[in-house]
Design brief:
Number of helices: 11
Structural class: alpha+beta
Bound molecules: adenosine-5'-diphosphate, magnesium ion
Shape: globular
Strand content: 25-35%
Distance between the termini: 54 Å
Number of strands: 15
Length: 321
């Protein structure tokens, strides 16, 4: 099976809409963006052994490759429109390709987001690069840089679950853990993150700044605060820890995962306190757990506090538990 056969068999699918003037098969794709909207372009590469453990199923790899990019679009309040795929493969295993393509199109299926092109190469390691193009009403995109001192800081979902899930996967696939509902739930939060695209679209015009949580809540909230020239305080007691994570990891480790673990693909954003009620009703309508976890301030620092007292961090992680 050569690369052309791979493309034809697994990636060239019907489903192009009338925004695709030319899809897979030529030297480039030709797209027709809406004239009154801004284009938003995001790209993310995931590397076997770096971004996911060797042995993760092909279907999960395909799903995650799209989901992590959808999460970036969510943080920009952009609507997903088109997708490209650059794939480096160490072998052309039909079962792997079939699973991968399934996962990829599964993650894309909630959106009208055709795969319009890509590249297929051979290499020593599996490397998957997905690029998404989205669009947004002109000027209505969210950025990291609009937060003001005094804004509330929010997070969606239950951060830390993905780090707990990765730890569970890496610790080994004992049958006991795999059969355990808590471990299964946590592992799924790693392998199948839920990009918050509908919620990201809903908070455009309300949120003052937004970022998706890929590197860890403190790190990413810190990027938002830094880009906005503010400081931030996160209240440890407000962290929305899942019952599953607390049972598996215990409270102290659960909090550490939530603060410093990555891969959650939740949204962290800021908003004027006057908009709290509206944000919560939007979240309720979309079935998204929304938690106010702190506030932006003018300290220029990011602090995590417990009972009002700062908890110390270091580069190597988290202390004082
Ligand atoms: P070129 O040599 O001009 O770069 P290729 O032979 O690499 O073109 O690719 C042929 C067509 O298949 C192009 O339209 C390209 O966008 C598409 N394509 C290649 N790899 C993939 C892939 N993994 N997924 C989707 N489309 C792909
Ligand atoms: Mg060419």
């Amino acid at each position: 099976m050569d690369e052309f056969e791979i493309i034809r068999r697994y990636f060239a699918r019907d489903g192009d809409d009338d925004t695709v003037r030319l899809g897979i098969g030529d030297d480039g794709a030709v797209l027709a963006p809406a004239h009154d909207r801004d284009l938003v372009c995001v790209v993310d590469t995931i590397v076997e052994g770096v971004h996911y453990p060797v042995g993760l199923s092909a279907r999960d790899i395909g799903f995650r490759a799209v989901a992590v990019n959808l999460s970036d679009l969510a943080a920009m309040a952009a609507r997903p429109r088109w997708m490209t795929l650059a794939l480096t493969l160490s072998a052309n295993d039909p079962d792997w390709l079939d699973g991968f393509a399934r996962g990829l199109f599964e993650a894309a299926s909630h959106w009208s987001m055709p795969l319009v092109g890509g590249d297929t190469t051979r290499g020593e390691q599996t490397v998957v690069t997905v690029e998404l193009l989205g669009d947004v009403e002109r000027g209505a995109f969210l950025t990291r840089s609009g937060a003001k001192s005094g804004d509330d800081l929010y997070v969606t979902g239950t951060p830390g679950d993905a780090a707990g899930g990765l730890a569970s996967i890496v610790a080994g696939n004992t049958e006991q853990d795999a059969a355990d509902g808590d471990h299964r739930y946590l592992r799924q939060r790693f392998t199948r993150p839920t990009p918050r695209v509908p919620f990201g679209l809903a908070i455009a015009g309300i949120a003052t700044a937004a970022i998706d949580v890929s590197d860890g809540l403190v790190a990413d909230a810190g990027k938002l605060a830094h880009a906005s020239n503010t400081g931030a305080r996160i209240d440890l007691q407000r962290l929305p820890l899942s019952a599953e994570l607390r049972r598996v990891a215990g409270d102290a480790k659960a909090a550490r995962y939530a603060l410093t673990g990555g891969d959650d693909y939740e949204l962290c954003f800021s908003a004027d306190p006057a908009d709290g009620a509206e944000l919560h009703s939007l979240a309720d309508a979309l079935g998204v757990l929304l938690t106010r976890i702190g506030k932006l301030d003018d300290t220029g620092q990011i602090l995590v506090c417990r009972e009002g007292q700062p908890v110390e961090f270091s580069d190597t992680g988290y202390r004082h538990f």
